[in-house]
Design goal:
Blueprint: H1 2-9, H2 11-23, H3 33-75, E1 80-85, E2 90-93, H4 95-101, H5 122-135, E3 139-146, E4 152-163, E5 169-177, H6 179-199, E6 205-209, E7 215-218, H7 223-226, H8 243-259, E8 264-270, E9 276-287, E10 293-302, H9 304-318, H10 328-345, E11 349-356, H11 359-366, H12 368-385, E12 391-396, E13 399-404, H13 411-430, E14 433-440, E15 443-449, E16 453-460, H14 467-483, E17 489-492
Parallel strand pairs: 16-17
Antiparallel strand pairs: 1-2, 1-5, 3-4, 4-5, 6-7, 6-10, 8-9, 9-10, 11-13, 11-16, 12-13, 14-15
């Protein structure tokens, strides 16, 4: 550093500077020219030396400042520094290294660095040292060290080989305590293991998606839909959603990402074999430190069976289990709706009450099972003879009701339309019924049975007081048809 400063000034420049300083001084006249020249040269050299001494003083000051800075950076660094010879003996260590190892700094010199490597990681350190020698360059590894008190702690060790000018091989190393980081890593691993344990043993379907809806993880339960779940990583999670539900599901997902709040949604899912599953899903989000959504965790259930059971319960509650027609409860609700529609539109409607004429003899002769076969066929014939807006229901036993909606604004025309449909029903019900009573060997035992019906009709108008009033009038009309010998149609046109 001194040589560099002197060279920077330059011998020529130094000479010129010295002569300039000397020229500024005033000397008395002398006749002794040679002596004057000698004196001049001596003074020039004196000034040169003074200038060189000043430069040396400045360089010395800079050197001392650099040494102070070096000691501060080296000794007070928050991580450990040490220099190790090729035999693994410590040549030098900073204060942080001595503190981590729990020993006095001066006592570290010539100590083997392996002394501070935990027993469990001696093999790791040996392998690390071999790599450092054979490959050179910077090497890093995580291992456990032990201090003088026997306390073990994790460090991240970074070392590089240093070929000194004296041909002596040295290794310079840094290391810092990463025990807390390792503890957090272990806690994270435990959480991940716990998550996988739960996810892989639940019957629920768990999916982790990115904010665009691409699959990052699917629990093994998805195998029944996809086969090998890993093949679907990175694919679009909306692809298997039923086309009619896909855009709705996508919108709910994007709203979850935008708001950070999960929502429950029901939709249909199509598996690889083409089967449609009713799914119920709820999403929750994972955010980064900036509060941005980076993952969406979706927990789903296949509720196909549950919905089927709910439908069955609903069917049992509102439908006749034999004929599958609406029962009295559901029909009463539909009648109330028909009355409301009639009130708004001013169109007439009609209610037919139907009773089979000779059903009891069939039950008495062949039993209820055969009677049930006839009732099922009656129900099918009734459904085939009415419009889509009309309703057919089993009222009980061998009694059925038919509700005709939206006939006409004119009363007489409405009566005519109702009578026309009633005649169609009576004709259909009068056709012979083929009833199978069982098997004898390979032969089906079947016979024909004739069963007519008595039909009573009541007109529905918006002034009607109650559904019960309409039913009573239709029942009275049916009774009149029955009293007339059966297979008849009677009309009760009064609406008040």
């Amino acid at each position: 550093m001194i040589k560099k400063s002197t060279d920077a000034l330059g011998q020529k420049d130094l000479r010129l500077k010295a002569e300039k300083n000397l020229a500024e001084q005033v000397f008395p006249d002398s006749s002794q020219v040679d002596a004057q020249k000698l004196l001049h040269e001596l003074r020039v050299h004196q000034i040169e030396l003074e200038l060189q001494n000043e430069e040396l003083r400045l360089v010395q000051t800079e050197l001392e400042a650099s040494q102070i800075l070096y000691r501060g950076l080296y000794d007070l660094a928050p991580i450990g520094y040490c220099t190790v010879d090729k035999h693994g003996r410590i040549l030098q260590a900073n204060l942080a290294a001595a503190t981590l190892w729990g020993v006095a700094r001066e006592s570290l010199v010539n100590q083997p660095v392996r002394r501070f490597i935990a027993k469990e990681d001696q093999d790791t350190f040996h392998h690390y040292s071999q790599q450092l020698v054979s490959a050179g360059g910077l090497h890093t590894c995580d291992l456990r060290m032990v201090n003088a008190n026997g306390t073990t702690f994790w460090v991240r060790l970074r070392s590089v080989i240093d070929l000194a000018g004296d041909d002596k091989t040295r290794y310079r190393a840094t290391f810092g305590d990463i025990s807390e980081s390792k503890r957090l890593e272990e806690a994270l691993r435990e959480q991940e293991a716990f998550f996988h344990l739960i996810a892989e043993n639940l019957s629920d379907f768990i999916a982790v998606l990115d904010p665009e809806g691409r699959r990052l993880y699917n629990s093994p339960s998805y195998q029944q839909f996809f086969g090998k779940v890993s093949d679907f990583n990175g694919t679009n999670s909306f692809a298997e959603v039923h086309p009619d539900d896909r855009e709705r599901v996508r919108q709910v997902f994007m709203e979850t990402v935008r708001s950070g709040e999960g929502r429950q949604i029901d939709y249909r899912f199509v598996s690889t074999d083409g089967r449609i599953h009713e799914m119920e899903s709820r999403g929750s989000v994972i955010k980064n430190e900036a509060g941005q959504v980076v993952r969406v965790v979706v927990v789903s259930q296949d509720v196909t069976v549950r919905k089927q059971l709910q439908e069955q319960v609903h069917q049992m509650a509102f439908h006749d289990p034999l004929t599958l027609l609406p029962n009295r409860r559901l029909f009463s609700d539909r009648l109330s709706q028909a009355m409301a529609v009639s009130s708004r539109s001013a169109c007439y409607g009609a209610l037919m009450f139907i009773d089979l004429d000779n059903f009891k003899p069939l039950n008495d002769a062949y039993g209820h099972d055969v009677g049930d076969l006839l009732l099922i066929q009656v129900a099918e014939r009734l459904k085939c003879c009415v419009r889509e807006i009309d309703s057919v229901a089993r009222f009980g036993g061998d009694e059925f009701v038919v509700m005709l909606g939206q006939l006409d604004l004119d009363k007489e025309e409405s009566i005519s339309q109702a009578e026309s449909i009633a005649k169609k029903l009576r004709a259909a019900l009068s056709e012979p019924y083929v009833l199978n009573t069982g098997h004898v060997g390979d032969i089906d035992m079947a016979f024909e049975y004739f069963c007519t019906a008595s039909i009573g009709i009541a007109l529905i108008k918006h002034q009607e007081a109650s559904p019960g009033g309409i039913l009573r009038r239709a029942d009275m009309a049916m009774y009149q048809a029955k009293q007339a010998g059966g297979n008849q149609i009677r009309f009760c046109a009064q609406s008040s």
